[in-house]
Amino acid sequence: MREISDQELMIMFKEGNTAAFDLLFDKYRLPVFNFIYRMLDRERASAEDLLQEIFMKVVDGKDFYEPKAKFSTWLFSIVRNHCLNFIKSRRYMQAGSTVSLDARDKESGLNLADKIATEQDDQRSMENKEALEILEKTISTLPDKYKEIFLLHAVEGFTHQEISKILKINPATVRTDYRRAKLMLRKKIEPILDDKKRDKR
What are the chain's domains? Predict the structure, then answer.
């Protein structure tokens, strides 16, 4: 039996099938949350608020949806714009709360650390998590335009062409900015990891 596409589910939702929206929400809740969480420099409470607001926007905007592009591209255009509007408002500066990289929320499921850490020996697992926390913190220092491209491609798995549609910029610009983001991260992370290695000797 053929699997129903995201676009078809959204059309079904437009026509009044709320179960179709539930399927889309279940599929995209974690990817959307993870993207928001990192765009807001890991401020969990605000990320949770935005997650709800964004899916309410999807509900409110269902009548305007046209399956001209992938549903995920349309959705992340909304997510990205909502994040940027929130960041510009600077409300996230007032939240002030931070969470551990390994914190779990009963609704949010697995975080990036859970995906990368394997069931190897405890020492290897600790090293993986430590390196990942360094990566997470370093991503948060990137300028917004590089951060969002890096997250969309490296974490969410969008192609450069899809990102160009989400951000409404040239694919060549996406490729260039993604390379710059990786270079920035490498320059920031390598000295930290080298220092960690020297400390363990």
Answer: 1-99 (1.10.1740.10)
